[in-house]
Design a protein that fits this description.
heterodimer, A: mainly alpha, 25 helices, disordered N terminus, B: mainly alpha
Chain lengths: 665, 307
């Protein structure tokens, strides 16, 4: 199918057009009077553009081609190249798929009829965010890149503060804005230094720079800070939990599923410039990666807010991906192609997987919020009865994100594990194998976090009246979720497909891997894995039929849950979200630092008491906020410059420019 | 060659299907002997399972499809795991590079569904059981991976069959310290994962203190039979792993080796029975400490072999 298009249209142009269409999809809605028309138009346009964009990206990906366009502009920053290579084409897939699914989801979740005041802006910025990310992947001029980066960051901000009447939302918005601009500041340093190195604002070609020059370390460090802050690598993740929790759910899906990956794309792209990365770089990425994974999921275990839990798990997944990039880089430095291949394949496939199961879960969370009006897991329960389809799809997402077979999350972690184990026979860096038990611990914690999430939302009896009156979600909500769930199943059952998708991007990252030997070898191993997954499903189906056959032969009755002798159990006596994770939190409290308020019980008949468990944002609350407070006090004198008088601001700009010009002469 | 492979596969599957409940019988008999009782017959667990299969089922009105899926998934995952692990000196029916990772994660899948099935009933007791199961098994996970690393290093292989069959008295002579530490760590994992004393007491009468048994309080009839059988199979599969480390006999004669394997498994059941007879259940807050200690033992063994 993809190749049939070749004769008709240039695939690179098609991707570009698709990206622009997505960006303009929300524009008609801004001017239309009738509610709903603009939103529906945006959804249809985005889906059509996605069909074209994905088909063209796949074609570019599998033909291993690189396409270059030059954009004519009159700005003094050199030629503005737009390039699509396999790495860009690979990252293009989640951009299109998630934005299309999200815009369809919005029809049911944020209908124009109910949210007339906010819907127009939301639809417009949603398209703009997706479009800026798609074009960002093509941009090869540093200045153009940073312009798109800002469009992306700001449209995400406007999406995030959609419900700005709420204090929490505004606070999340401010934290996000500060974090993203700190990152942008680092990127200014990054692009300026790159331009100083190469003499042009065009991004350097692959393998054209040496990492041994003194500037290289600063370039790498500023890239790590600038892109890492966007990706949410610890300790640069501070904006992430509150931003993801407070945005509308399809926006969280796009932010978590795709926008975080733009940070990773930046890191990938930066790493391609250098032909001799030192061991230190890989080590830094590996250590920060595994720390993010471990701490991220430990924080997730402690959360009570459903979407905050998902956000913390994004930090975990980004951590796993970064670990993969780190070990791949260590492989480059130590000339170990197997490690490069497995680290890269694991990281890239996990990027793809995470951009399917995380949006699935965020959209599911949206359906739940739509039905119950709360994000607090302790107030839910029993939703599986009212919304069985959402429950099933959410279950698929949960199993996938825990990295459990037979779904896709397992496949990428499997490749990483293989990479770690293969180090046992390597000439150097044998100790990397110790990452395997750490990743296993992360997996175990993920199971706690997601069994907590699923059980407290869908299982048991409702803990609040809102949860008791839940209703099944509509088709516009279910279809996007089902789409993601199907992909998760597909990559889980046929993991070779996933490997096939990432292979071109691996080659473009490390051209020495162009030989197919490794991909054939690991394709065969994944084939065995796929057979085992099929066997597992077959055994389960057979067991189910045998059980139903026995069930049919004997009487089946229903009765209340056995109360172990207690007659008057109530819904509040169930194990809730906080009680489920309490034991795990007590074991890992060194990391989580939960604030627990327990009442003192006095006398024989203590009265009513209140107990609270509040998870701490350790790094934000203990380090960043105190630092910012100190900075705020010591730089208070600078506030005199900020007085709200527009003409004086313009004067500042003029004076700065004048001084710079004098300096240049 | 082909015939012997088929014969071995058949015996492997036959043993996995038939033998697991016998271990429970032997454990019970050992405990009875220590307590000075006659005890239930060796075959009692088979009778229990068959009787449960004939019984009717009571479903709690709170439950949904998740509750019904729990036992099925637990059985399916353990069954597939039993095909990955070699029994005695014979390699397993399914073996490929990296199968040890699948082996570890299959248990995670089974556990995930067992816990959700328990939480589906809305009972606080079953909630307690799942919370404990989740936390303890999460702490036991790294131990298994350290063990796998050590074994992979010793055998130079990435598949369970080669790793485990490779262990012999010769390997013990050269790497005695590492293997001894591993045996200690893995025995703790074996007891913890199968909810035996000192971690959990399958026979206790107080739901508050239980882990695995409390999670399946509401299952009845054929579903409970499936759970009982899957639990026995899990003990058998993890036991087979442990037996490779602790009792690596091999004669070279395939039929003798099968006999040796069966005898070693029965020995293991007796040892578990003795441990259960002479120890008391630990206080729950001590359990994580013991699990972390086991992890450190296994980590030491890893360091010894990769230094």
């Amino acid at each position: 199918m993809f190749f049939a298009l070749q004769g008709i249209l240039d695939p690179g142009l098609m991707v570009l057009v698709a990206a622009i269409v997505v960006g303009c999809a929300g524009v008609p809605g801004l001017f239309l009077k009738k509610p709903g028309t603009g939103q529906a138009f945006a959804a249809v346009a985005t889906i059509l553009a996605t069909l074209a964009g994905v088909a063209a990206s796949m074609q570019l990906l599998f033909s291993y081609t690189t396409i270059t366009y030059v954009l004519e502009w009159n700005l003094p920053f050199g030629p503005c190249e737009l390039v699509i290579d396999p790495l860009s084409a690979f990252f293009m897939l989640p951009v299109f798929l998630v934005s299309a699914a999200g815009s369809l989801f919005a029809l049911g979740y944020w209908p124009s009829a109910e949210h007339r005041t906010t819907e127009r802006g939301l639809t417009f910025f949603y398209g703009l965010l997706a479009s800026s990310m798609a074009i960002l992947l093509m941009a090869r001029n540093g200045v153009f890149f940073i312009m798109l980066w800002e469009v992306m960051a700001l449209s995400a901000y406007f999406l995030l503060v959609t419900e700005h009447e709420s204090n929490d939302v505004r606070r999340a918005g401010i934290v996000y804005l500060i974090a993203t601009h700190t990152g942008t500041a680092a990127l200014f340093v990054y692009f300026s230094l790159l331009a100083a190195q190469t003499g042009s604002f065009l991004l350097p070609a692959a393998g054209s720079l040496s990492a041994l020059s003194p500037f290289a370390t600063i370039i790498a460090l500023s890239a790590f800070i600038g892109f890492g802050a966007k990706a949410g690598i610890m300790p640069l993740h501070i904006w992430l939990p509150s931003a993801h929790a407070n945005a509308p759910s399809h926006v969280s899906a796009l932010m978590s599923g795709v926008m975080l990956k733009m940070g990773l794309y930046g890191i990938f792209r930066t790493l391609t410039y250098f032909y001799d990365p030192p061991l230190l770089w890989g080590a830094v990425l590996t250590v920060t990666g595994i720390t993010s994974a471990l701490f991220g999921i430990a924080f997730a275990v402690a959360q009570r807010d459903m979407k905050r839990l998902l956000a913390c798990s994004s930090i975990e997944n980004i951590g796993i991906i970064t670990t993969g990039i780190g070990v791949a880089l260590l492989g480059v430095s130590s000339h170990n192609t197997t490690l490069v291949y497995l680290g890269m394949a694991g990281a890239l496939l996990h990027i793809l997987n995470h951009s399917f199961f995380k949006p699935l879960l965020f959209l599911g969370a949206g359906a739940i919020i739509h039905a119950t009006g709360t994000r607090e897991m302790n107030l839910m329960g029993g939703l599986g009865k009212g919304m069985p389809r959402v429950a099933l799809l959410f279950m698929i997402g949960s199993v996938a994100i825990c990295g459990i077979p037979p779904l896709n999350g397992f496949v990428s972690e499997f490749l990483l594990y293989l990479g770690f184990f293969k180090q046992l026979k390597a000439d150097s860096l044998v100790y990397l194998v110790l990452l395997a038990p750490l990743l296993a611990l992360v997996g175990g914690l993920a199971v706690i976090a997601f069994s907590k999430l699923f059980s407290s939302v869908f299982l048991g009896t409702p803990r609040s009246p809102a949860a008791a009156h839940s209703h099944e979600a509509g088709l516009t909500i279910l279809v996007p979720m089902a789409f993601f769930a199907l992909i998760c199943l597909l990559i889980g059952i046929a993991p070779q497909l996933g490997l096939h998708l990432v292979s071109p991007a691996i080659t473009s990252f490390y051209p020495k891997l162009a030989s197919t030997e490794l991909s054939v070898e690991y394709g065969a191993i994944l084939g065995r894995l796929s057979l085992s997954g099929a066997l597992l499903l077959a055994v389960a189906v057979v067991a189910m039929f045998l059980w139903r056959w026995r069930l049919g032969k004997s009487p089946v009755t229903s009765a209340p849950t056995w109360g172990c002798g207690y007659k008057r159990g109530t819904a509040r006596m169930q194990y809730g979200a906080s009680s489920f994770s309490e034991l795990a939190v007590s074991v890992f409290n060194g990391i989580i630092r939960q604030r627990i308020g327990r009442p003192k019980l006095t006398g024989l008949f203590p009265g009513a008491a209140h107990c609270s468990e509040v998870p701490t944002e350790t790094i934000l609350e203990r380090i960043i906020v105190p630092l910012f407070t100190i900075a705020g006090v010591s730089f208070a004198f600078l506030r005199r410059l900020q007085h709200g008088q527009m003409h004086l601001y313009m004067l500042y700009v003029f004076v700065t420019l004048f001084i710079l010009m004098l300096w240049a002469h | 060659m082909m015939n012997s492979t088929i014969a071995n596969c058949t015996i492997h599957i036959f043993l996995a299907l038939v033998m697991p409940p016998l271990l429970l019988g032997v454990i019970g008999k050992t405990k009875a002997a220590f307590a000075g009782r006659v005890g239930a017959p060796f075959l009692q667990p088979y009778h229990d399972i068959l009787r449960l299969l004939r019984k009717g089922t009571v479903f709690s009105t709170t439950t949904s499809w998740v509750f019904r899926a729990g036992p099925i998934v637990a059985l399916a995952t353990t069954a597939v795991a039993s095909l990955l692990i070699p029994f005695g000196a014979h390699s397993s029916p399914i073996s490929f590079t990296g199968d040890m990772i699948l082996y570890a994660y299959l248990f995670a899948l089974g556990r995930f569904f067992t816990m959700l099935a328990a939480l589906d009933t809305g009972s606080s007791f079953e909630g307690m059981g799942s919370a404990r199961e989740a936390t303890y098994s999460c702490l036991a996970e790294p131990t298994l991976f350290f063990a796998l690393i050590t074994l992979s290093r010793l055998s130079g292989s990435y598949s369970l069959s080669n790793m485990l069959v490779n262990i012999s008295f010769g390997v013990w002579l050269n790497n005695g310290a590492a293997l001894l530490l591993l045996v200690g760590g893995m025995f703790v994992v074996l007891l913890a994962e199968n909810c035996r004393i000192p971690f959990d007491d399958p026979n206790t009468h107080l739901e508050l203190t239980m882990i695995h048994e409390v999670m399946v309080l509401d299952h009845s009839g054929p579903a409970f039979a499936i759970i009982q059988y899957a639990a026995a199979l899990k003990l058998f599969v993890l036991g087979a792993f442990f037996v490779h480390l602790a009792l690596p006999y091999a004669t070279g004669n395939p039929y003798l080796d099968w006999g040796l394997f069966i005898i070693s498994m029965l020995e293991l059941a007796v040892v578990i029975g003795i441990v259960e007879s002479v120890m008391a259940r630990l206080r729950l807050i001590r359990v994580p400490q013991l699990l972390v200690a086991a992890t450190i033992l296994a980590a030491f063994s890893t360091l010894l072999v990769i230094r």
